[in-house]
Amino acid sequence: MTEIHPAKKAAIDLFKAFSLGRSSNELYPVDCEFIAKNLGIEVIGESMGDDFQACLYLSGKVKAIIYNSAVSVAGRLNFTIGHELGHYCLHRNLGDRQCTLDDLDNIGSTPPHGQDIEREANLFAANLLMPASDFRTQLMGSPADLELVTALSSRYGTSLLATLYRLKELSAKPITVIMVDKFDTIISVWKNRGFEELYIPKSYQLDEPLPYNRTHTVVNPEYFGIRQENCPFVLYQSSIDYKFNGMKIVLLTGEPM
Ligand SMILES: [Zn+2]
């Protein structure tokens, strides 16, 4: 049996403690500020420059999470406090920690414990805010599209990106998340196991601008530069604007043919 990652274990344990005595409809979004205060950590908002997101401050008896109250992306605050709680639970022996927007977006495959503490704190926050069993229950009976992801990000109080990554991790269906820039060029591709064999060329420029639709529709694989003969799926795509610079997020799912 593979050992559970310490960041996941710490988050699951903290969620269990938080859920004690609460009914299921009192759990979400998980109240990170409440959890922090229960651990004796003050949570303080200050309006600061764009890049600073939050820090964990540890000095003698004073413990605080200070976050940038000028940052207004939906779901960001709860995830940010969850991230700082991750540093507190996993890395407080390293002292104070200051985190940027890039640190909060450093979401990806699970690093070995201690090797990439920003990603580890994000893994912790994802597991604390979006527990796997509840997340999988929410996926049942709904198409995996951006309509669903938007609803889940408001259920959990998480950013769209963090919620999409959790979907990619936990869905039994093939899932790919594609980021497209304002020139309609693919700049990043995240695939789960179900789409492992599917080759999507990075830097590929779409022939036509992306249609916006949160509910998914069938799409021709060649639209994303995928050769039809190499695609054993019927592909569905949904898409949404992403925070700045005309970027878009595309969610691709597939049903075996
Ligand atoms: Zn951090």
UniProtKB/TrEMBL annotation:
Tell me the Pfam families matching this sequence: Peptidase_M78 (PF06114)
Q: Which residues form the IrrE N-terminal-like domain?
A: 37-168
List the InterPro entries: IrrE_HExxH, Rad_response_metalloprotease
Q: Under what name is this protein listed?
A: IrrE N-terminal-like domain-containing protein
What is the species of this protein? Alishewanella longhuensis
